[in-house]
């Protein structure tokens, strides 16, 4: 261990009640939008946030939790102030039944389509996705399979919702996430760059396995995903070049949004790397 770096961080400052109240307000959407700040809960999310320490304003941690020590060391090295709190105090700034012991206040950096480089080849666009757990899981899957960006339309869940952040398990910090997008304009933007647009649709005329075998998935691709409950309405589905069904060989009626996104993104990522 480098000289001057302890294996155990000191307990840290105690936050005042005003600081805790300010953090608690970030559970409210209006406050997140007004301040540009959001809460990242859990060791993995905080670890990924600290990779870009300029985005981390401060963090709160339950004192005496040994497994958090590497994060506290990283925070101190980065100049991020850490406040020691009780488990009861931490519970007031999270929306989970069993908090994970650490929460960071982070600055939200809004992604834009212009963030995509010329080498971009795989993007997922979520239209009217309202469930925060699904949205966060799609972001995590996109990150895992090497997608270049995630786009959420204006009528989708707000990306700094604590449940979205938690479900992304740190992936929110890894790739551009564009929000508030107009669907038709977004798809036109990608078509102009040579992308094909494939809509994931259980009733689609094309099937994922046939497209994979044909080599069509090797092209730069936008995957268009619809709402959890009703999928893509006809006026959205027709904006795609193809409507693609994931074949189901068992007795399940359908796949949920996040699972379908994972299968489609994996198929494209594999084809593009052959």
UniProtKB/TrEMBL annotation:
Keyword vocabulary terms for this entry: Methyltransferase, Transferase
UniProt xrefs under InterPro entries: Alpha/beta_knot_MTases (IPR029028), MRM3-like_sub_bind (IPR053888), Ribosomal_eL30-like_sf (IPR029064), rRNA_Methyltransferase (IPR051259), SpoU_MeTrfase (IPR001537), SpoU_subst-bd (IPR013123), tRNA_m1G_MTases_N (IPR029026)
The keyword Transferase is annotated on this UniProt entry: yes
Highest taxon above the source species: Bacteria
Any GO BP: methylation
Gene Ontology MF annotations: RNA binding; RNA methyltransferase activity
Ranges for domain RNA 2-O ribose methyltransferase substrate binding: 39-112
UniProt xrefs under SUPFAM superfamilies: alpha/beta knot, L30e-like
One GO cellular component term noted in the UniProt record for this chain: cytoplasm
Tagged with keyword Transmembrane helix: no
Pfam families named in the record: MRM3-like_sub_bind, SpoU_methylase
Entry's family note: Belongs to the class IV-like SAM-binding methyltransferase superfamily. RNA methyltransferase TrmH family.
Name of the protein described by the UniProt record: rRNA methyltransferase
Source species of the chain: Enemella dayhoffiae
């Amino acid at each position: 261990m480098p000289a001057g770096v302890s294996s155990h961080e000191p307990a840290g400052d105690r936050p005042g009640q005003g600081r805790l109240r300010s953090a608690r307000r970030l559970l409210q959407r209006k406050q997140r939008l007004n301040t540009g700040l959001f809460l990242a809960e859990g060791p993995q999310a905080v670890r990924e946030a600290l990779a870009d320490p300029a985005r981390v304003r401060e963090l709160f941690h339950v004192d005496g939790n040994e497994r958090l020590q590497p994060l506290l060391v990283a925070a101190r090295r980065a100049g991020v102030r850490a406040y020691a709190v009780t488990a009861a105090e931490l519970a007031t700034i999270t929306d989970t039944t069993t908090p994970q012991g650490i929460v960071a206040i982070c600055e939200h950096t809004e992604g834009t389509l212009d963030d995509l480089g010329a080498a971009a080849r795989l993007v997922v666009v979520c239209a009217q996705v309202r469930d925060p757990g699904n949205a966060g899981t799609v972001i995590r899957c996109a990150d895992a399979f090497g997608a270049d960006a995630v786009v959420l339309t204006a009528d989708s869940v707000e990306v700094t919702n604590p449940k979205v952040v938690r479900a992304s398990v740190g992936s929110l910090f890894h790739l551009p996430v564009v929000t508030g997008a107009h669907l038709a304009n977004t798809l036109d933007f990608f078509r102009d760059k040579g992308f094909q647009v494939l809509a994931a649709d259980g009733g689609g005329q094309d099937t994922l396995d046939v497209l994979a075998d044909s080599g069509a998935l090797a092209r730069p691709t936008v995957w268009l995903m619809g709402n959890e409950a009703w999928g893509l309405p006809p006026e959205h589905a027709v904006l795609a070049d193809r409507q693609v069904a994931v074949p189901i060989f068992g007795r399940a009626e359908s796949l949920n949004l996040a699972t379908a996104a994972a299968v489609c993104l994996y198929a494209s990522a594999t084809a593009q790397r052959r």
